[in-house]
Amino acid sequence: MYSRKAPEPSRWEAAAVVLFMVAMTAWYAWPQIRYSLYPLLDIWRALLSG
Amino acid sequence: MSLVALGVGLVFWGVSFLFTAALALLLTRLLRTGRPALDAVMLGFLWIFVVTFDLFAHGLAGVLSRNALVVTSGIGLGAILLIPGVRSKLRGALVELGTWWPHLRRAWSDLPGWLRVLTVLAFALGSFRFVFLVWALPPFVWDSLTYHLTNVAHWIQSGRIEVFDAPVLRIYSPANYEVFATWFAVFSHHDGWVELSGLPSYAIAGLAVYATARRLRLTRTASWLATLGTWSTPAFVLAATGTKNDPMLAAVFLCILAVTVDIAADFAEAADRPAYPRVLALILMTLYGLGTKPYLLHLLPGPLVAGVVLGGVRPSLTAVSRLPTRLLHEARAQRLPANLTVLGLLVAALVLGSYWYVRNEVLQGNPFYPYGVNVAGSVLEPPEGPTFRLDLANLWANLQLTGGKFGDKQGRITPDLPGTTGWGWVGYGLGIPALLWAVLRRPDFRALTLGFCLSGLTLLLSSPTSPWNMRYMIWFPALLCLALGAVQDGLQRSSRTTRNALAVLFAGCLALNFSSTVNYNLVKAADLKSMLERPFWDRQAAYLRVHVPLEYENALLRVPPEAILGYNVHQNGFIYPLFRADFSQRLAYIRILPSESCGDIARSLRAAGTRYLVGAPEHTDDSILALLHGCGEEGTILRELGVGLYVLPQGS
After folding, report:
1. Among chain A residues, CA nearest to B313
2. What's this model's pTM, rounded to 2 decimal places?
3. Which of residues 216-245 of B touch A (CB under 8 A)?
4. Which stretches within B376-442 are classed as H helix?
C-alpha cells in the first residue's frame, strides 16, 4: 500500500475538503470557543484589576 | 535554599547532562538509519534511556544523590574524553551531528513564509507558556500527587529506589517515567523544575511524527504542519507538564510507529538498508515502554499490522522470514566492541523493562500488583486493585464512553480529560476531514489508520471504563495531523484561495489550541497570582487550591519540617504534597481502623515516632475522619491543631 505517487485532487475536490474543514471547525466551535477563550479573558481581567 | 546551593545543584545537573548526552551520542551510532529525522528521534530516545538507566542504577545501589551522580558522571565524562578511541568516536558523532545543519536549513527554506512566521510565534509562545507554568505552579495533577511524584519524593529523600509503607498501592506500578523525572529534582533537591520531565517525550513525539510523515513521502512543509499540529494537541500539551507517564508512553508508541513505517517502506521499495539498528531500536523502545506502563503491550498490534499492510503482506513476510539470517550477518560484520555495547544496551533495556514486574512478583506474588489481569474470564493473578479485562463488553462500554466524548462537547479540556478527548481544534476541525479524504485517496493512509485504530481498540478492550480513559490515547491525534499534512500536499495544484484558506484555518486552530491550554484551563488567575506572590522555593503543591484541600497547607504551616508527620489517607489519597517542595518532611503512614479508640491512635503515633497526624476529606475515609474529629472534640488524648491536623500534647 506504500505508493511513490501522491494523489493530485482536482481544484473542486480540494475546495470541497477545505469547505468540509470550515464546517467541522464551526461544529467544534460550539461550545469549545467559550472554553478556549475563557483563560485569556480571565488573565486579561486579572491584568486590568492589577 | 541558598543561592549557593542552587548554583552548585545547577552545575552538577550540567555535568550529568554532559555525561548522559555524550553517552547517548556515542550510542546513537549503533541506531543510525541514515535518515536525519529518524536519527534525531533515536538520539532523543537514547538520551532519555541513558538518563533513566543512570538514575535507576544509582537508585538500586542506594546512592541516589546529587553528589554520587556528579562523581559518577564526572568519572564517566573523564573516561570518554581521556580514552583516545572513545574520544575520537565522540568527535565523529559530533561531526555527524553537524551534518544535520544543512538538512535543517533546507527544511526551513522550504517552508512557505506564513508557516515560518507561525513556527516562530508557536515556538516563542509555546516555550514561554511551558517555562512560565513550570516556574509559577507546583505539580497539581491528581495521579501525580497520589503516586507518581510520591515515588520520586521518597526515592530522593531516602537516596534509594524502593517500595515503602504507603496506602496508595499504585506506588508499585512500573516506574521508568518516575526514575526519569527524578533527574529533574534530585540536583536541586526541590520540585521546582520537575514538570519539565515530560518535555523530552513531548519533543520526540513530534519528531517521530515528522519522521513518519517524511517516510510517507510528505513534503517538508506538510510534515512540519503535521508536527506542529501534534505539538499543539491540547491533551498532549496539558499532559506534557503534568508529571505523569502518559506523554512518555505516547512518545514511545509514536517512535515505534516511525521505525516500523521506515522498515515497511523499505520492504515495499525492496530497499537494501541495514535492519540491525532499527530492530535494535524497536527492542529498546518496547522494553523501555513496558517498564513505563504495561498497556504498551496493547498498543503494539497497531504498528505491527500497519507495517505489514504498508509494506505489503508478501514482501513483509518474506523479509521477516529472512530477518534472523540478515541480523546475524550484520552483527558479524560489526566489530566486537560494538557488539558488546549492543549486548550491554539490551541487558539495560531488559532490566528497565522487567525490574518492576519481577520485584512485584517477588514481593507480592503478582507481577502486575496491585492490579489483577483477567483475559476472557480467566483470572491470571488474584486481583487486589482493579482488574484489567480483555473482553468485548469492556470494549463496548469504552466505545460508548468515547462516543460521548467525541467533539469535546461536555466541557473544557483539562489535564485529566474528564468528559473530553482533548484532541482540540486542529484535530477535529482540520484533522477529521483530512483523514476521511486521505483514507479515500491514499492507500498508505488506509494502512496507517488501520494501525492507529487497532491500537486504540485493543487499548479500549482492556482499559478501565473511567471518565478519564482518553488520557491513554493522547497519541491518536497524530494520525489526524499526518492526514492534514497529506491534504496540504494534495493542495499544491489547487487555487491560491483554497491554499490560503487552509493556511488561515490552520493558523486559527493552532492559536485556539494554544489559548485553550494557556493555564491548563483549570487554574484561575487569582490562584496563579497567589502562587506568584510566594517565593519560587515556597510554591508548595499543598498551597495550590486546584485539587489539594486546605488540610495539607495547614499541616505544612504548623508541623516543623524536621519532625515526622503522620498521615492517614485512602488508596487514592494525596501523599506527595506532605513531603514539601524540597522533600524535607519525613512522613509516616498511620494505619487506623474505624473500630480503634483515641488511645489506639495515640499508640500508633508514638510507635511511628511522631506527635502529628493529618487527614483530609476526600483523601481520608469518612469513618476515620469522624473518629479523629471525635478525638479532637474530646481533647484529652489528641488535640486538633487547625483544620485536619491532630497532635499529641507535649510529654504525653
Report:
1. A1
2. 0.95
3. 216-217
4. 392-405, 424-425, 432-441
Side-chain-side CA neighbours of B609 within 13 Å: the count stands at: 6
Q: d(Cα B594, Cα B13) in Å, to the nearest integer?
A: 47
- The answer to whether the Cβ–Cβ distance between B490 and A37 falls below 8 Å is no
Chain centroid, CA B488 distance in Å: 30
pLDDT for B179 equals 98
User: How far, in whole angstroms, is CA B572 from its chain's centroid?
Assistant: 20
Question: Most distant CA pair in chain B: distance in Å?
Answer: 85
What is the distance between the alpha carbons of residues B153 and B157, in angstroms, rounded to a whole number? 6
Q: If you write DSSP's letter for every residue of B55-71 in order, what string do you get?
A: HHHHHHHT--SHHHHHH
The CA-based diameter of chain A, rounded to the nearest angstrom, is 59
- B262 alpha-carbon distance from chain centroid: 24
Q: Are B372 and B383 in contact (CB under 8 A)?
A: yes
Nearest CB to B525; choose among A27, A31, A42: A42
The Cα–Cα gap between B398 and B393 comes to: 9
Q: Between β-strands B387-390 and B586-589, what pairing exists: parallel, antiparallel or unpaired?
A: unpaired
Interface predicted TM-score of the whole assembly (ipTM), two decimals = 0.94
For the cut 70, the answer to whether the pLDDT of residue B342 exceeds it is yes
CA distance, residue B300 to nearest chain A CA (Å): 20
Reduced to 3 states (helix: H, G, I; strand: E, B; else coil), residue B447 is: helix
pLDDT at B394 over 80: yes
Q: Across the interface, which of B411, B428, B502 has its CB nearest the CB of A24?
A: B428
In the sheet that B378-379 helps form, which strands lie side by side, from edge to edge?
B378-379, B372-375, B387-390
Q: Which three cell numbers stand for residue B166?
A: 504507603
Q: Which amino acid is at B81?
A: L
Which residue do the cell numbers 486552530 mark?
B509
CA distances from B458 to B124, B203, B264 (A): 38, 26, 22
DSSP H helical ranges for B365-431: 392-405, 424-425
Return all residues near B120 (Cβ < 8 A) that are at least 6 apart: none
pLDDT tens digits along B547-569: 999 999 999 999 999 999 999 99
Q: How confident is the model at residue B469 (pLDDT cuts 50, 70, 90)?
A: confident
Grid coordinates given for B438? 486521505
Closest CA to B547 of B87, B100, B7, B144: B144
Calpha distance B488→B484 (Å, rounded):
6
